[in-house]
Design goal:
The protein folds into 2 domains: 131 residues, Rossmann fold; 135 residues, Phosphoglycerate mutase-like (Rossmann fold). The strands form 2 sheets. It has a 6-stranded mixed beta sheet with strand order 3-2-4-1-5-6, with helices on both faces. It has a 6-stranded mixed beta sheet with strand order 9-8-10-7-11-12, sandwiched between helices. The chain contains 9 helices and 12 strands. The protein is of the alpha/beta class. About 4% of the residues have low confidence. The chain is elongated. Helix 1 crosses helix 2, helix 5 packs parallel to helix 7 and helix 8 packs across helix 9. The two termini are 30 Å apart.
Length: 284
């Protein structure tokens, strides 16, 4: 895998989902070294490639292996000899085409995006692409991902309960999974009043921002959702289960939460200004 990032914390879940997709284990993390590491050395000075993958390396229990910008041929030779199933490389994006070429692959960088992971298999020249979609505007620049709304139920009758921790664990597992990530990382969360206990923990896990959390009526939730959907592309709404049918009706969406309270995420895909379609996916 060849990765360039701007948001390091979600990179851990993003790479885990890709590794699961290809049924491989990431065994090492490589990054472009800064010229500032050695007095008098010429070349790119940015420390961003290394800083980006430090949280990922820590999560994997490995140390970031650093190479000078012009040593990408040496790095790729070392990777080929390592025998590892998969590695992650974080490099300055303009020079990443040179890195890909060492693996026999031709890479064309999508202009204006910095949240892309390219995967290449040794012995193949084919590249596959995964967009992380973690930043406002990423949805609409060179990526196929439409604006989306995810809706989950806190099911607490507007007060915290013993279900809080189980809800939180289910949500983190689902939003860190392949399905949710391929539609874009959640950066914005709208929360109905009384459903904030696990929402704050989820926001921290996703490195997302809770933008509204004191609204009670479905009308207010829809207004907040509409505003933030336009700005951020993907929005998560946490609402009381008993109010979800009224909420989706206000959105002109034919969806409702199961009466038995099963752990389901309603995923609504917008089609321009139209209502689009909704999908219900169990996540517990």
């Amino acid at each position: 895998m060849l990765a360039v990032e701007r948001a390091p914390t979600p990179l851990v879940a993003h790479c885990a989902a890709i590794a699961k997709k290809y049924k491989v284990k990431i065994g090492a993390v490589y990054a472009q070294r800064s010229a500032l590491d050695e007095p008098g050395r010429k070349g790119p000075t940015s420390k961003r490639p290394v800083d980006t993958v430090v949280p990922l390396a820590k999560a994997l229990g490995v140390t970031v292996q650093k190479y000078w910008p012009d040593d990408y041929a040496l790095m790729t030779a070392d990777i080929k000899k390592s025998g590892l199933q998969a590695v992650v490389i974080c490099w300055e994006h303009d020079a990443l085409t040179n890195v890909a070429a060492q693996f026999g692959a031709k890479l064309t960088w999508p202009e204006g995006r910095y949240d892309v992971t390219f995967s290449v298999k040794l012995g193949s020249t084919a590249l596959s692409t995964d967009f992380q979609n973690v930043l406002p505007g990423d949805m609409n620049k060179a990526g196929p991902v439409p604006a989306s709304t995810f809706i989950v139920a806190c099911d607490h009758q507007k007060k915290a309960s013993a279900k809080t921790e189980s809800d939180y664990k289910g949500w983190t597992k689902w939003f860190g999974g392949e399905y949710a990530l391929q539609y874009g990382g959640v950066r914005t969360i709208v929360v109905q009043k009384g459903c904030g206990a696990e929402s704050e923990k989820l926001a921290k896990y996703l490195d997302a921002k809770v933008v509204d959390k004191d609204m009670d009526k479905p009308d207010d939730l829809v207004k907040a959702l509409s505003k933030h959907k336009r700005e951020n592309g993907v929005v998560l709404v946490v609402a009381e289960r008993l109010d979800i049918q009224a909420l989706t009706a206000k959105m002109s969406v034919a969806a409702s939460y199961p009466a038995d309270g099963a752990g389901v995420t309603i995923h609504h895909i917008w089609e321009g200004a139209k209502a689009g379609k909704s999908i219900s996916v169990k996540h517990k």
